[in-house]
Amino acid sequence: MSDPTPHPAEPLNEAATQAPLAQPDAAAEPPAAPLDPLAAAQAEIAILQAKTAELQDQYVRGQAEVQNARRRADDEVAKARKFALESFADSLLPVVDSLEAGLAVKTATPEQIREGAEATLRQLTSALERNKVIAINPAAGAKFDPAQHQAISVVAADQEANTIVAVLQKGYLIAERVLRPALVTVTAPK
Description:
- It contains three helices and six strands.
- The protein has 190 residues and is an alpha+beta fold.
- The strands form two sheets. The chain has a three-stranded antiparallel sheet with strand order 1-4-5. It has a three-stranded mixed sheet with strand order 2-6-3, with no helix packed on it.
- α2 (37-104) packs antiparallel against α3.
- The radius of gyration is 45 Å and the shape is elongated.
- 4% of the residues are buried.
């Protein structure tokens, strides 16, 4: 068997190693241009169509993801509202039980009724505080704060102007937001 690879000692066929230097005849068919403008344009169109399809797919997937995220957020907000109310209502049930138990006693003395009412008020206050409903009950002599207090009347007093003389009705905050301002009497400016 003969080895098809040339050996370094053997001369190579010149025709095989050199490219033809002569120009082709005018009658001969011209070689196909590697970048035929029509073929190149069609290839570019095919590439752009593939990219367009890919981008459209990404856009549709992105829109679906946004809609899913919005739907999940809406569901979470609805659940938070539902369960927040559920938690608040659950914390008020012992108050209802205490009131019903107190009303069921037919022969209670005034002292027993008062003790029951005080215990029920403590339960209610505790339930409100657990749900971040905090009383606004400023002390006499405290500075008037229009963000948390509502002045019902102004009286002349020996105290500094715009200080609270008396609280007529407590106010309430819920999560640091005024639910109801405290109704107060304040001192008149001098």
